[in-house]
């Protein structure tokens, strides 16, 4: 997946900057991350999604690479000092793909069916819809997960539709899950690029590829996530959309991992206020959440903002 996405960006960089087509002007460096190497342990137990970026960040700060390409949903909420983030290229399909050898969609699964996922976000929203299902840990690359499914370890699983589309594997999708049933991960479907703060050349290259509606939507989603201080152990979902006329719509969700309690909220406003919309939506989610959910989130994220009370208004 990482190689496919990086090659996708490289082709667009070359198209926008023909001199990069010349031999020696652009080199792809493959770096295997901890998240890629360790496939038998849940990310939450390993330390979170930063395991997909740590080695690349180190290589960048040591000037062994100039640009790193990621799935935006794998980029940590807070980046190391000295590294800047760009949301680039038009966003792919944001939906989760339902893949099953036994059912056409979530509703058609038998009661008690085993469903595999390593995502607390997917688990919480799935159990909210179908509390009668059994959700089991499920990691590995696309081929590994699909083989486990074919071997009968589970009856269904989920993958990001965007990744399957980029790999040319759309035929593996049984059905799509509407965002109204399973809100996507923050940044899902978007590609991210990072470079050093002072590297003006790389920043110019990446700016030329930036798709404004994607950048606005992802900015709002990540502003929400920053307030919630999201980790892999806290089910958080967010999806921003622009309407083409300067208005942004942002939906957000936080939940208990078992799906027994969720809080949802939605805000709209001018694209220019994307970050503020994200922050305000996060505060609304915290106000909508029950005390038990807030305490659970606080125990996982001790730096979470203080929840404003009803009389304080919006800070």
Description:
This protein is α+β, with helices and mostly antiparallel strands and 315 residues long. The chain has 3 domains: 2-89 and 190-210, Periplasmic binding protein-like II (D-Maltodextrin-Binding Protein, domain 2); 96-177, Periplasmic binding protein-like II (D-Maltodextrin-Binding Protein, domain 2), CATH 3.40.190; 220-300, 2-Layer Sandwich (Double Stranded RNA Binding Domain), CATH 3.30.160.40. 34% of the residues lie in helices and 19% in strands. It contains 11 helices and 11 strands. Helix 5 links the parallel strand 4 and strand 5 (134-136). Helix 9 packs parallel to helix 10. The termini are far apart.
Specify the CATH homologous superfamily of the largest domain: Periplasmic binding protein-like II
Radius of gyration: 20 Å
Q: What's the helical proportion of residues?
A: 25-40%
Q: How is the quaternary structure best described?
A: single chain
Lateral strand order in the biggest sheet: 5-4-6-3-7
Structural class: alpha+beta
> What number of domains?
3
Query: pLDDT average, as an integer?
Result: 88
Helix/strand layout:
Elements (H helix, E strand, L loop, with lengths): L1 H15 L17 H4 L5 H4 L7 H8 L5 E5 L11 E6 L7 E5 L13 E3 L3 H10 L4 E3 L5 H9 L5 E5 H6 L8 E3 L13 E6 L3 H8 L4 H17 L7 E7 L4 E9 L6 E9 L3 H15 L2 H10 L15
Parallel strand pairs: 4-5, 4-6
Antiparallel strand pairs: 1-8, 2-8, 3-6, 3-7, 9-10, 10-11
């Amino acid at each position: 997946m990482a190689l496919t996405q990086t090659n996708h960006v490289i082709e667009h960089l070359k198209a926008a900057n023909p001199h990069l087509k010349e031999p020696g002007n652009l080199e792809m460096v493959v770096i295997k991350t901890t998240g890629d190497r360790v496939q038998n342990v849940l990310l939450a137990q390993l330390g979170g999604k930063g395991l997909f970026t740590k080695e690349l960040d180190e290589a960048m700060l040591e000037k062994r690479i100039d640009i790193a390409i990621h799935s935006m949903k794998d980029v940590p909420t807070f980046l190391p000092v000295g590294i800047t983030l760009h949301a680039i290229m038009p966003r792919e399909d944001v939906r989760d793909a339902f893949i099953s050898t036994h059912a056409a969609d979530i509703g058609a699964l038998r009661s008690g069916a085993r469903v595999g996922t390593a995502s607390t976000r997917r688990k919480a929203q799935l159990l909210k819809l179908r509390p009668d299902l059994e959700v089991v840990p499920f990691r590995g690359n696309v081929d590994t997960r699909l083989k486990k499914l074919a071997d009968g370890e589970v009856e269904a699983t989920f993958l990001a539709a965007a990744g399957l589309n980029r790999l040319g594997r759309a035929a593996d999708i049984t059905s799509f899950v509407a965002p109204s049933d399973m809100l996507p991960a923050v940044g899902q479907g978007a590609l991210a690029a990072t470079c050093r703060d002072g590297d003006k050349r790389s920043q110019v290259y990446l700016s030329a590829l930036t798709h404004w509606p994607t950048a606005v939507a992802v900015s709002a989603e990540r502003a929400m996530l920053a307030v919630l201080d999201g980790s892999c152990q806290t089910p958080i979902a967010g999806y921003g959309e622009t309407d083409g006329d300067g208005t942004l719509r942002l939906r957000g969700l936080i939940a208990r991992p078992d799906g027994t309690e969720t809080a949802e909220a939605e805000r709209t406003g001018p694209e220019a206020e994307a970050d503020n919309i994200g922050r305000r939506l996060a505060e609304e989610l915290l106000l909508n959440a029950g005390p038990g959910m807030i305490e659970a989130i606080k125990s996982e994220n001790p730096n979470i903002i203080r929840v404003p009370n009803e009389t304080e208004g919006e800070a």
